[in-house]
Amino acid sequence: MGETRVDLQHLLEDLRDAYPGALEETILTEVVANSLDSGATCLRIKTYPASSTLTIVDDGSGMRRRDLVRYHDLAASTKTRGHGIGFAGVGIKLGLLVCEDVVTETRRGKEHVASRWHLAGRHKAPWKWIPPSGLVADHGTAVQLKLQNALSPLLDEGYIEETLRRQYQPLLEPEFDEVLGRHYPKGFRFEVNGLVLTRRHARSTESSRLAVCLAGKRKPTAVGYLTRSESPFPEHQRGMAISTFGKVIKHGWDWLGITPAASDRVAGMIEAPALSAALTLNKGDFVRVGTRGALYLGYRKAIQEAVSQQLAHWGDTRETDDKAKRRAVRPLERDLETVLVDLAEEFPLLASLVERRPGGQKRLPIGPTGVSGDGQAMLAASLVSQAEDVRGPALPPESPTESTGAEQTSKETQIESASQAEPEPFPGVAVVPGPKGRSKPARYGLNIRFESHAGDPDLGRLVESTVVINDAHPAYRRAAASRSEGYHIALAVALALARLAVPPAEEHEFVTAFLTHWGEALDRSPRGPRKRR
Predict the structure, then answer these.
(1) Number of Cβ within a 10 Å radius of residue 39
(2) Average predicted confidence (pLDDT) for the chain
(3) 23-32, pLDDT tens digit by residue?
(4) Most confidently modeled of 56-65, 198-207, 256-265?
(5) Which class for 416: exposed (0-12), middle (13-18), buried (19 or more C-beta within 10 A)?
(6) Residue 17: left if φ>0, alpha if ψ -120 to 50, beta else—which one?
(7) Most buried residue, 61, 146, 157, 296, by most Cβ within 10 Å?
(8) 368-402 burial by CB neighbour count: b if 16+ within 10 A, else e?
(9) Pick the residue with more confidence: 371 or 168?
């Protein structure tokens, strides 16, 4: 009888490549994530360049002997998604790729054990019990890496501090004590070579608080800030960052789908612990399908609203698309819904943009970025009904009614109540609403937005669920001059979606099928065949 063999080294290399950053950065951030999940209040890091050794010690709950045995198995984590950020079970295993050996010492109660582990060839990673060397005092876990490269950045104190500040920024800023204190009630601190990393307030010329609340709840479930400066921020600080349990997941403006007029002078951060349930394996993104995808999209919509409010208050929003562009986009958005539903069966990766309803009905709701009412409610209804384990019981649904002035006043009061800690209502507060009746079909999902990117060779690009059309591209300007923007936008959308739906060799086939279905959608439109402009 045969047995399945695993090329362990190749598997670890594939896992390494799945992470967005450098391997050394991944190892460091994964070890910190495991320490946070263990209830640690302090993480001590010491570098020994002379011996090419890095030692990381936490004061968490530690592991029992049987837990340390499982620790050496790949993907054997006992953690539950949504209850921390170290759920993947691959963490320190990646260290085997750059280390001569990995020593792990842990202490929990009366159990004090240690092991030595290394990669021996492509198929084996043997480990053995060793006597504890006393790295852990009362309780916690220590990891000691004997690095192969004497010039590894993991031996550089400056690199370690910069990585910790960038990847775990909310833990080092008092602005997030309110929301993170619920998960880390005793606080958390980093020590690098005996020096505690200082906590710093976000500094800029002007700053404003952001908050996101669940419907019917006063206490924010996501908090943050938006700052702007008279001079440009450094490149790595620009944009809006989102974190969960103190770990920064995404950064920039693209993920949010909003860009200020002076994007290089605005920065911000928002912490949303509930989004840990929607993390991808590499903790570099959020899933966008199923229940977890609905969780992320619902929060993202509320964050968009909060950021947009504050930017509008500052007068730092981009000018909205002119009427000519919107006239070209409105009928096209309706036709795109039909096209993508038709293509979803042939190109399965498009399914993430198509909503499947009970009974097999499919629908791709599409609408402009600024419209958040009904679409936000639909996403939030999915949040409430399917992600109760993250937030608690849902509110009972309201009876379907037409929106009235009194109802609108109630919504405004609800938003204001979310900011009870402030002396008066402020911009930058948004609510993820609970389920409610709707008088109209929801419209959300794929959006079309125009931006000017001179010199960019692409006609458009897909960012989250938005296709950004480059209106500075010479081809767009020629199309506008000949009044054929509609065809140009359809082509740009097809090219942008092709990168999502098919491998490069099949992009031409996809674009051809997309434009063919688009032409058919125009011909069978209830408004009658229209000129393909």
Answers:
(1) 19
(2) 78
(3) 999 999 999 9
(4) 56-65
(5) middle
(6) alpha
(7) 296
(8) bbeebbbbbbbbbbbbbeebeebbeebeeeeeeee
(9) 168
Other CB atoms within 10 Å distance of the CB of residue 251? 19
What is the number of H-type helices and E-type strands within the chain? 13, 19
Exposed (0-12), middle (13-18) or buried (19+): which is 234, by Cβ within 10 Å? exposed
Residue with tokens 């009746």: 437
Q: How far apart are CA 435 and CA 374, in angstroms?
A: 10
> Measuring CA to CA, which residue among 112, 11, 35, 123 is closest to residue 68?
112
Q: What is the DSSP letter of 354?
A: S
Query: Cα separation of 154 and 28, whole Å?
Result: 8
pTM across the whole model: 0.71
* Helix ranges, 72-176 (H): 157-167
Q: Which residue has the higher pLDDT, 226 or 331?
A: 226
3-class SS shares of the chain: helix, strand, coil, % to 5 = 40, 20, 40
Question: For 342-358, what is each residue's pLDDT tens digit?
Answer: 787 777 767 666 554 44
Check: CB of residue 450 under 8 Å from CB of residue 467: no
DSSP string, 362-375: EE-----TT--HHH
- The structure tokens 């011909």 sit at 523
The position carrying tokens 């950004």 is 468
Residue type, 103: V
Cβ(16)–Cβ(94) below 8 Å: yes
Model pLDDT, residue 489: 86
CA distances from 261 to 160, 321, 345 (A): 34, 13, 40
Tokens linked to 21: 């950053």
